[in-house]
Structures are given as structure tokens and as C-alpha cells.
Amino acid sequence: MKSIKNLTRGKEGRALHVFTLDNGRTLKVTQHHGMLLSDGRVVPAHSVDVGSEFVALDGSLVRVTGLDFEFTQEDVFNFEVGASDKSGHFIAAEGVLVGDLAWQNQLSREMGSIAVRK
Question: Could you give the CA distance from residue 84 to residue 61 in angstroms, rounded to a whole number?
């Protein structure tokens, strides 16, 4: 269990990336949200395509079967968890692991270059 170190909330002017997943769920994130791919790289959501695979909570793979874009008038939220290393900055969303707020802020320059899963 991790504590929440920081929380952001606000309007998002750009369209959300809406991923349809083969686990039966739909995941909506901002274009720069860090996404953990099956090869261990963390990449921004805007670079994920149909056919990409995320990592489920149990370590299995979840394939992206559809991609849409959606504008929202609702606030979007993001959390940063208290973690001592990069691999600890993940949260669960719709059954898959995604990067927390640290991946968008402090770790954004390292997206795509760090393998957190082998």
C-alpha cells in the first residue's frame, strides 16, 4: 500500500485518449499520461496504438483493441504516490498499471528509456 503524496485536479483542454481493452474495460487518460507497456517501457499515451499491450495487476498482458478521442468538461485527476524509486510510481486504472503523476512531471524526460519490467 502506498500513500498519496500529491493530487492534481483540473480541466483538460485536449481530447482524452480512450483505450478499449481486451479485459472488457475502457481506460481514459490525458495525452501525456505515462503508460506501462508489456516490454517494460513507460510511454506517453499519445504514442500508444491499437495492438499495444499494457500490464495487468496480476502481470498478465492486456491488449488495446480500440482507440478513440473524447473531450470532457469534467475535471481530470492524477495522483503521485509516495515511492522511493521509479518502479514504485505506478497506480492501477481499469485493471492495468499506469504511471502516476511523477511520470508526467519529474520522470517525463525518461519516458521510453527506462525498462521497469523484463
Answer: 26
* pLDDT beneath 70: ranges in the chain: 1, 105-118
For the record, the C-alpha cell of 92 comes out as 492501477
Which pTM does this prediction carry? 0.84
In 1-118, beta strands by DSSP E: 4-10, 16-21, 26-29, 34-36, 42-44, 53-55, 61-70, 76-81, 90-93, 96-99
What angle (nearest 5°) sits at the alpha carbon of residue 59, between those of residues 42 and 50? 55
Three-state DSSP state, 20: strand
Is residue 97 packed enough to be buried (19+ CB in 10 Å), middle (13-18) or exposed (0-12)? Answer: buried
Q: Where are the alpha helices (DSSP H) in the chain?
A: 101-104
Short-list 109, 106, 103, 105, CA closest to 36: 103
Largest CA distance in the chain: 38
Of 46, 31, 23, 47, residue with least CA distance to 97: 23
